Amino acid sequence: MTDTKQTNDSIPTIEASAHCDGPCGVYDPASARVAAEAVQSMTKKMNTLEANHGDSGSNSAAYINTMSRYAAIKEEEAQKCKDELLVLWTDFFKPQHLESIPNLHDTFWQAAKLCSACKAEVSEQHAQELMDAVEEIHNMFWAAKGREVPWIRAS
């Protein structure tokens, strides 16, 4: 629904409204999975780089450059994962889903918190917990749609 109003400066303003951010109705947790996998991959690479360079090598320009690139990618992908999960949580899932998925809110809340933890830390444990949470959300999503879609990782 749109409505045109005149402002004080006689410039028309158009107001629009929609029931959600994505009226196309196309939702899929796959993009969250890919982002979570990237977080896990970068976390492992960061730990491997640290282990292979030791104290003396960690001051080199090459080490600092590579580590900073890995960290930037990890943080970007953790934020992408969080954004994708929040869209599913707030736009796809409806109150009626709570009847069949009583732990829906807690699962999403914990997953979003894990995205934040993965941005702030270099923790393989939290990266794996994020993957586990995204897998659980994958299963919730497809169950809500009445479909069985296997969990398949790209890595």
UniProtKB/TrEMBL annotation:
Signal peptide: none annotated. Coiled coil: none annotated. The lineage of its organism: Archaea, Methanobacteriati, Thermoplasmatota, Candidatus Poseidoniia, environmental samples. SUPFAM superfamilies: Nickel-containing superoxide dismutase, NiSOD (SSF109770). This is Superoxide dismutase. One of its GO terms (molecular function) is nickel cation binding.
